[in-house]
Amino acid sequence: MARAILGYYSLPKNSGLLGNIFDSTLTEVTDPYDNFTFRVDQVVSENNRFFVRGSWYDRDSHYNDYLGTEASGVNFKFISRQGVIDDVHTFNPTTVLNVKYGYNRFIRGQDQEEDARGFDLTQLGFPSSLNSLTAEDTRRFPRFDFPTNTILGTGFGNEFRPVTTHSLAATLNKALNTHSLKFGTELRIYREDSLFTSNDQTGQFIFDNTYTRQNSVSGTDFNGLQAFASFLLGYPTAAQIVRRADYSEYSKT
């Protein structure tokens, strides 16, 4: 199994334990990065006018693809959509009605590379029975942890989280002699959903020096070498498959 896993690490670029990092100077690549806003004002009649405003923002970035394989690389998204409609109607010189609606949707998404999604674990030497324990839409290149050297790990906290807000308000302003009266109502709806596809749901394997240290005293595991030796031998200290619950929250005021 360890040999198969190592096949997903590129050939060493430099000497030393960290020499298999394909390019440690990689910068974040952002494409696209769009931000637009528009507004339209309209005079319907002498007594009525309204405006519409809309905004959208897209950021799609790619970073940390040190190995150039399914074992590394993060795709990160920010997506925002906003809209406002504001209508003002004048009934007479002393009575004005303002009705407005606002919409806001923000999505935060993080996932592994496309070739790591739906990953077939049998390519790493795992049995097909393990592969079938996780649904294909959640299955990813698995997580390998080296507590004494986090640089070597392949842990990803993947999540798709949209947040949506609706707001509707109506306000009636009435001037009465020397007084100004205001009546109105407002309704707000909030919703947040989250879908987790972190790769510990495919399998998390922790390697330390439990089986490779020289005696019962842990001592110093220089740069994680003893932990990495456990990995080469295929002896994880702990292994688990995590099951995370997706959630949906909804409220209105």
Textual characterization of the structure:
The protein has one domain (2-252). Helices cover 7% and strands 48% of the residues. The chain has three helices and ten strands, in the order αββββαββββαββ. It has helices spanning 2-6, 128-131, 225-233, and strands at residues 29-45, 48-63, 74-92, 95-112, 143-145, 159-176, 179-196, 204-206, 238-240, 247-252. The radius of gyration is 28 Å and the shape is elongated. The two termini are 55 Å apart.
Describe the largest sheet: 7 strands, antiparallel
State the end-to-end distance. 55 Å
Order of helices and strands: HEEEEHEEEEHEE
Q: What is the count of β-strands?
A: 10
Helix content: under 10%
Number of H/I helices: 3
In what range is the share of β-strand residues?
Answer: over 45%
Low-pLDDT segments: none
Arrangement of strands in the largest sheet: 1-2-3-4-6-7-10
Structural class: mainly beta
Mean pLDDT across residues? 87
